Amino acid sequence: MAGKTLYDKIWESHSVGVLPTGQTQLFIGLHLIHEITTAPAFDMLREKGMDVAFLERTFATVDHIVPTDIRTRPFLDPEAEELTQALEKNVKQFGVEFFGLDSMNQGIVHVIGPQLGLTQPGMTLACGDSHTSTHGAFGTLAFGIGTSQVRDVLATQTLAMDKLKVRRINVNGALGTGVYAKDVILSIIRKLGVSGGKGFAYEYGGAVIDRMNMEERMTVCNMSIEGGALVGYVNPDQTTFDYLKGRRYVPSGAAFDRAVNYWKSVASDSAAKYDDVINMEGKDIEPTVTWGINPGQSVGISERLPIPDEYADPDGARKAYEHMGWQPGAPILGTPIDVAFIGSCTNSRMTDFRAAAKIAKGRKVKPGIRALVVPGSAEVKKLAEQEGLHEIFQEAGFQWREAGCSMCLAMNPDKLNGREICASSSNRNFIGRQGSPQGRTLLMSPAMVAAAALNGKVVDVRQYE
Amino acid sequence: MTEIVKIVKVSGTAMPMRGNDIDTDRVIPARYLKEVTFARMGDYPFFDERFDASGKKKDHPFNDPEYRGASVLFVNKNFGCGSSREHAPQALYRFGIKVIVGESFAAIFAGNCTMMGLPTVTATHDEVALMMKTVEENPKTKFTVDIERKTISFDDKRIAIDLPETYRSALTSGCWDSTALLRANLDQVKKTASKLPYIGGFAD
What we know:
The structure holds 2 protein chains of 2 kinds. Chain A has helices at 6-14, 39-47, 78-94, 109-116, 147-156, 181-192, 207-211, 214-222, 238-244, 254-266, 314-324, 350-360, 378-386, 389-396, 446-455; strands at residues 15-18, 24-27, 30-33, 58-61, 97-99, 124-127, 141-144, 158-161, 165-172, 200-205, 231-234, 276-281, 288-290, 298-300, 339-342, 370-373, 399-400, 421-424, 440-443. Chain A is of the alpha/beta class. In chain B, a hairpin with a 4-residue loop joins strand 6 (143-146) and strand 7 (151-154). Chain B starts with 8 loop residues before the first strand and ends in a 10-residue tail after the last helix. At the A-B interface, strand 1, helix 2, helix 3, helix 5 and strand 8 of A face helix 4, helix 6, helix 7 and helix 8 of B.
């Protein structure tokens, strides 16, 4: 008998039954909510006189809209204040556990779930945010959902879903110096395309992934959705168990041992059958930078920008050049920047800050460059300050902020202006994503952002390593 | 309570929105997600490409008076990629779009659309190109999308369309608003949950 994947096993154990539509009703083990996509869902619940079905499996925080500089209430932006108050009212009325602005557990929803040990292997998880795939790093089936689905999870702790196929992506060998998890996932998306993952769950493996710590795996899984895959995951292993041990919502003592046994049992069998298998070599991956308007439009730092007619999607390339204003065939190296942003659910954890601080230490941000470092959670902020990373950044000329989504998505005061070009550790380079319809985003690793900030242009971080 | 609305057929004039990989940030810029309800979303689709900084209208299908009143939207590949914001389909729906026909759709977007009763159906590259050309040449062309039979008809033509069988079933049976379906099985849900070791905190 063919072995099973982690996806198969969790799907089976969480299936409630088959609906008349043919979809599977899938139990959701953990529901994380935030201020942006939930207000209409709670309204619908009130309208229908329903309560939250599994309160003990539901947790809330605020992240997208919160200012990262001045957080005194009411917020300067009345809309942000209103939406935050709506969440505060909803969690109070329905009784949902809430990590608000004054909580040491506040932060980006995809940073705090793992940090608190809420996210665990062998679980299904949903959140009204496409980057929910982040939690897959733990061997969790984590789904980004819309507001109507948030309503369904609140009302029933289940979702109506269709089963996906599974694509195994092996990243073999080892990464070179100066090459990070971000470069790995950007390379995967470049290779398979921004819609290549449609209909698939991505299972990441191979020696490069095996060697990664949990924060690096989160970076990889985070951007699965940018490759079109609704779900991305890594099989749980000793690295996973060591990370989880002792965290607030993780059982201790004999219960921890039982948990580990369960977590081991959900990993894909060695004889598991995949719908597709892709192999990549770590040594082929360079520090990678996006040049266009979707995360698949990237090049290695030593490469030149593509010629539209030679590109897989010539019209897509032309549209990108029209917005970005580069010359086809030019090197990406030396592209000027105006803003440097280190943060977001992709890259705002200790591993990211240590890598960036190593580059920034004892050096200065080029005058005229606006540079921000924004922790993913209040906890990350505290830990970074205990290590003195904030001083390294501040001495170099970076601003050190409070936890939140910040400049990733322009729902708070951190935004690009006009045609500014931003070297960004976030996940999307879509037109207008960072708050200016004319703004331009170059996605790269946190270390590459730090190096770009020092030079006022895109450089190869390996010159510092 | 929500009444059962079966979505079997959608008819009307159409509009084209050309380009692959049109993301939901383009469909609705994030600043509009700060609104507490979806009520005004119909004012905002593609806002930043329809208006310049001073609010002046730019050339855009969503501004074109020729396409006013269109209920069928033609798109290319991977439409709706990126953010899971349901504000994007809400914006299109409230603008007047009642069915989207494209080469392919991003997964979360298609799911969101279906759950609000907005079908997303696919046709081949060449067929979408033909229909876009048809509507550009004659914006008054009336299209009829038959979700039940999986066809789209216009002029004297009939083209096969596709959509996942589960979506077709949900739309045509009126079960696209799934809460009631799911809620009916709450006892079974609790039973499934009770078998999962983490629900009990891995108690012995």
